[in-house]
Design brief:
The complex is a heterodimer of chains A (184) and B (985). With 184 residues, chain A is an all-alpha fold. Chain A has 9 helices and 1 strand, in the order E-H-H-H-H-H-H-H-H-H. Chain A has a domain at 20-74. The radius of gyration of chain A is 35 Å and the shape is elongated. The mean pLDDT of chain A is 77. Chain B is globular and about 100 Å long. Chain B folds into 5 domains: 4-254, Ubiquitin-like (UB roll) (Roll); 259-311, N-terminal domain of TfIIb (Single Sheet), CATH 2.20.25; 320-391 and 590-743, Rossmann fold; 407-583, Dimethylsulfoxide Reductase, domain 2; 822-950, Beta Barrel (Barwin-like endoglucanases). Helices cover 32% and strands 17% of the residues of chain B. By secondary structure, chain B is α/β, with parallel strands linked by helices. Chains A and B meet through strand 1, helix 4, helix 5 and helix 9 of A and helix 2, helix 6, strand 13, strand 14 and helix 27 of B.
Chain lengths: 184, 985
Amino acid sequence: MAKAITTINRIELTAEQKRKLDLEEIETALIDNKESILQSLDIIKHMKERGVLSLLDGLFSEGDKVLNVLVKAADNAEATNTLKNLLLMVGVLGTINVQQLEPLLLKLNSGVARVAEYRDSDDDKLGYFDIVRSLKDPEINRALSLLFEFLKGMGEKTEGLERTTQLPENQDLHQSKDGRLENR
Amino acid sequence: MSGKMNVTINGAEVMADGNQTILQYLSDSSIEVPSVCFHPSLGPIETCDTCIVEVNGQLVRSCSTVLKDGDVIDTVAPDVKQAQTIAMDNILHNHELYCTVCDYNNGTCEVHNTVKEMKINHQSIPFDQKPYEKDESNPFYRYDPDQCILCGRCVEACQDVQVTETLRIDWDSDRPRVIWDNGVPINESSCVSCGHCSTVCPCNAMMEKGMEGEAGFLTGIAKETLRPMIEITKGVETGYGSILTISDIESEMRDSRIKKTKTVCTYCGVGCSFDVWTKGRHILKVEPPAEAPANGISTCIKGKFGWDYVNSEERLTKPLIREGDSFREAEWEEALELMAKKFTEIKKEYGPDSLGFISSSKCTNEESYLMQKLARSVIGTNNIDNCSRYCQTPATVGLFRTVGYGGDAGSFEDIAMADLVIIIGSNTAEAHPVLATRVKRAQKLNGQKVIVADLREHEMASRADLFVRPKAGSDLVWISAVTKYIIDQGWADKEFLENKVKGLGEYVDSLGGFTLDYAEKTSGLSKDTLIEIAKNIHDAKRVCALWAMGVTQHLGGSDTSTAISNLLLITGNYGRPGTGAYPLRGHNNVQGAGDFGSSPDSLPGYQKVYDDAVRQKFEQSWGTVLPAKPGFNNHEMVEGMHDGSLKALYVKGEEMGLVDSNINHVQAGYEKLDFFVVQDVFFTKTAQFADVVLPASPSFEKEGTFTNTERRIQRLYQVFEPAGESKPDWQILMEVANRLGAGWTYEHPSEIMAEAASLMPIYAGVSYERMEGYNSLQWPVQPDGTDSPVLYLDGFPFPDGKARLYPVKWSIPIQFGEQYDIHVNNGRLLEHFHEGNLTYKSKGISSKTPETFLEVSPELAEERGLKDGTLVRLTSPYGNAKVRCVVTDRVKGKEVYLPMNDQGDAAINLLTSSFADKDTDTPAYKETKAKMEILQYEGVNPLPRTNFRYGNPQPQIGVQVQKKWARPDYIFPGDLVKKERAQHG
């Protein structure tokens, strides 16, 4: 004869038992992750020494407020422009062909070195003939032909490559079938 | 237009199939064209204009332009790009790109992806806020007009897929937006919270609330911080490219903590499948993909939003053992030991047939298989049944008698394809909501005819082309009369009958008494109505008949099911796509529970226990001797408890103490048991009578398969770890069996399926590998994996390949004394499942439908002075129930409707009797009468005003894009481009 009953006696753990179970669980976790925990402790020690901990503590304990301040600080024309320029620069950097740039940079470097050594004095005035004579100097001559090539390149039409000023349909990127510049 | 045709694409000549749109052809050929508003399950909506291409010199929308022979198509011309860019600009005017801090940044945002794909870096028309507030009123999803791009996918889904017809776009307003009904807040509209709109929304405009502030790493930020953050992201925009890169990274990072798991819904027999998005144990959303075989993008409120119960605090997490006047929590070890000891003692003292086993239509196939194996192979009894006994066994019997397979004749596609759908005794829109959408759509868009026979004017009835209200329990009569009339008119399908059917002569003789006059008198349907039904059937090339509990839960439920099948045979409506019989299975695995032998006379695969050859096959596989005598069914087990022949009962996943009929009688039976085990997710009413209660894991916490009403077998994967110490039922069953010495060694449900499939011819080719992900199989499955979406294409599964016409007689419904003057119809509601112990756990559902209610007709209300909220007592000869009234014209006269969703004083089965279908013992729930007393005239209306039933739907076809095009501020981007070209020469 089993009447319907609704009382359920839960297995109530005493505070002591619960604490014991929790400790056991933590102990197991500690042993299972011995290496990484010891290393983390080391890192934490260093962070404490450098004062990073208290800094982070401040940051995290007031997380929402800090974030709000940060976001508000960033929410102005200058800051957003910085970020914007940064992103743009990253884009532009990507278009530079470092392989081609390397020799140019090396030359620039040696030019800079010369200038650094150069002592500015009134005795060393360059006359008109000195200039013509200098053309014969192979180093000067090479530098000039390089400069002329560079000027030529600068004069080339590149609007089609600009992403910040051109409508998408006018960008070279969109003239190609597969979105690759070389196939346009 | 079909066959091959020649077209030129971007200068290249190619061959293409006809009969498709240009967009379809292009995307199949991997030529990328943006298409923001296009959705494969919705078709062309034509609102976004981003898919513009040039065809024969004209700029057109590729989504709605059909490919023609000789077409010259250009997808890359500057004009095309410009037109697409203008279209995208118009979209971005309506949508702010703050992807990194957007909850929808999960790789699937159409706006984000299209901006990226089109390499759009800035826009000419700046984003402009709309003058509307976010609508957060609905508990499950919210609408943000500011992010809405007005693509109309949600409207298309609501109007033409779900066909609730609530959403529209208000094209006449200055700044158009999506509106509900006539522009009311979502929660006061006719919205049924099915979730279609948030599923198809291409961006974050229509979003599940579970996602809000949870999906992203930065989206949970306090509101006052979020706004400046959005401003920063926008200020930094150096063209969208770089911003999208950052949001793409964030989106990839989300994968590390958002888990997406495919599962199969457990709320009805439709078998919807979907991905559950979770973060820890938090459910972010339910996302049905287009490839879900039964449902596609469709869900109902329960499947989309009804899973809170999985994380309920009330879940059973430890075994309970009865001790005096209370239960005490115990360890598994102790509970299982006790069960093994008691089962062994009782079996030894009273024999194996003194134990009974009740399996569940909510559990997996594998679990049903193990439950019956436990009963038969370990205990040695055929006393095994499941709750389809309460609903669908009569339909199965009707089909076995006539066509040979106890399952739906085809798939949902066939129902959608039919010219005529006859729905008898099924509140389809609420009981099988997603299936109902297929009928509603076919009727709305494709001119499908729908005939509904029901007592109550539910949604399908109000939409029907012909709605008839036969007298309760008279279906067999009018169906037989219609069949007889068809034969008398010479409209029977003679060729089909001659070649494929046996028993015509005897059957025609049996119809002699079913004249139109007799049917009119008995069923209350006029002769004209009956003739109209017959004509409709005769005129339709393809007829599907759908039925449910309104047919089966009667004294003659099996016979009425048989009569429906007979009618389909006479008219040749079997063995072709778009035809056949569809008994709509109520629970997710009613079909599977039967398939896998949770039945007193059938081993898995409907193989009879009394067939020696069959038994031998199972004995060899299982290595035990099996009983040959059919056992007790549910109904007989209840009687067994009362007469003392049943001593122990093991109930798994069934709230039998509430859902069986005449529950006072059932509960009194429990009290007489020597030993009673209940295994469930919650501490149910049934569990209160148990000696041992075992905590089980629901579908989200296990793997397995379900078989839906289409005979479709689908896998579910594990979303969560089992809560507490609960366990999947198959593991529990194995532990019980092994303590009784069975020595089972299954490590995964796939091994159980492999064993079962090797023993069940109709499941021969079923394996987990063939059902990976969203793949599914419809039985019978050949050993090579070929399945059967449509049955009987090559004849019927009888030795001679012919179907049988099976004569049946009408069973006069139960007669009640004169004082019982109220007919108590009963059944389901859309938003609750069964007695409600799962769905009431959803705060959202409970806020919209907090309790059950009694639908009373305006006539009865007038006569008795009933109002919304009046508390009445219904008294039948078997018990009484207390419930508050809602006055509605869905019911008529002295007919009332009591939904079954209550566990207390309003539980319907306090009123139902122990009378049952004469062939299957399925309770005659639908034959219930009572008298009504008023306890309190005034009271709170049990159905809040926020319930969708008070809404005011606004039917229209699709999103009405013509109205957008007619706006003075709209110019087709193609025309704009051409105009500009003309100006610039």
